[in-house]
Amino acid sequence: MLDQPAPFADVTALPAAAEQAPILVTGAPRSGSTWLGNVLSLAPNVGFVHEPFNQHCSLGLCRAGFPHSFVHVTEANEARYLAPMRDTLAWRFSPGAELRAIPTRARPRPPRALARLLRDYAYFEQMRRRGARMIVKDPIALFSADWLARRFGAKVVVLIRHPAGFVASMQAAGFVMNFQAFRRQPSLMEGRLAPFADEIRAAAEPSPSLEANTLLWRILHHHIALLADEHPDWIFVRHEDLSRDPLGGFPPLFAKLGLPYTPAVADGLAQFTSDQPALGRFSIFGTKRRTMRSSAASIHAFRSRLAPDEIASIRRLAAPLSERFYDASDW
């Protein structure tokens, strides 16, 4: 059975006021969450945080130390994660946790790691003092989105990605899923992911194969479909719809989230969606923002990355779940 919510015990973790509630941008990896999170962070007095649920995340940014991908946090197992996530969402950086981790990590080397710590600490302090609203970009938090919404009042935006687009992007990025992350979580295997239990057990070794990536798409989008049924107040949007018409799709999204859509936001959005690089735009941590060049052209990029027989295989393997999100014209 699925874990049942427990009564709130820590008043400091109760939901924030709506106008300051953190915004979680999640969904499947390679679904455009970085792009969407960066666009939302163009709004005034908003800050951006990159993947606190990532097991390789800076411990200063989030000292939870997640043991693997797609951790399913609920009230039943939150003891390890509640206080660290509360600090992160309150813009409280943990320099001590990061300093202790530096000697144990192969990368980056200590001088660079210390420089990163000082940079990230300064950014968090700046955002905290400004009372900035937080945009959390984290597809790895997908299975904990419920918990973040309940405990912290997070507003959730879930991105959906075409199966072939997802598989092509995973292969291009060289990402490989270790399905042991699901097997280690009985609450998922016996609950949300029970329909996939045999396939997950069979996927004993990480593989970059088309079949493995399509299985991951099915697992993640099965969960997304359940979330859409359970949370009609959340925002679910297809990557392709935003890419096809960003200037029409983003203003209502900003409005639903209570973010001002200013002329400066419109100018920034144009740079993020054109076929020209967004020169001069930098992420909060000093590296170039990822830019979706010619966002409309990205919709069917999988057709040039995958062979026709590969696309046909993905379509066969992803059905019938894919038919909830996409019809024949999308292939």
Briefly characterize the structure.
The chain is an alpha/beta fold.
Task: Give a structural overview.
By secondary structure, the protein is of the alpha/beta class. The chain has a single domain (20-326), classed as P-loop containing nucleotide triphosphate hydrolases (Rossmann fold). The chain has 16 helices and 5 strands. Strands 2-3-1-4-5 form a 5-stranded parallel beta sheet, with helices on both faces. Helix 6 (163-173) packs across helix 10 (210-230) and helix 10 crosses helix 15.
Main traits of this protein?
Rossmann fold, alpha/beta, five-stranded parallel beta sheet, globular, single chain, 331 residues, 8% strand
Low-confidence stretches: 1-12, 277-291
Q: In percent terms, what proportion of residues is strand?
A: 5-15%
The secondary-structure class comes to alpha/beta
Q: Shape, please?
A: globular
Across the major sheet, the strand order is 2-3-1-4-5
Order of helices and strands: EHEHHHEHEHHHHHEHHHHHH
Report the CATH architecture.
Answer: 3-Layer(aba) Sandwich
- Counted by DSSP, the helix tally is 16
Biggest sheet character? 5 strands, parallel
| Radius of gyration based on Cα positions | 20 Å
Mind sketching the topology for me?
Layout: E1 23-27, H1 33-40, E2 46-50, H2 82-89, H3 95-101, H4 110-130, E3 133-137, H5 145-152, E4 155-160, H6 163-173, H7 180-183, H8 186-192, H9 197-202, H10 210-230, E5 235-238, H11 239-244, H12 246-257, H13 263-273, H14 302-305, H15 308-318, H16 322-325
Parallel strand pairs: 1-3, 1-4, 2-3, 4-5
Helix pairs in contact: 6-10, 10-15
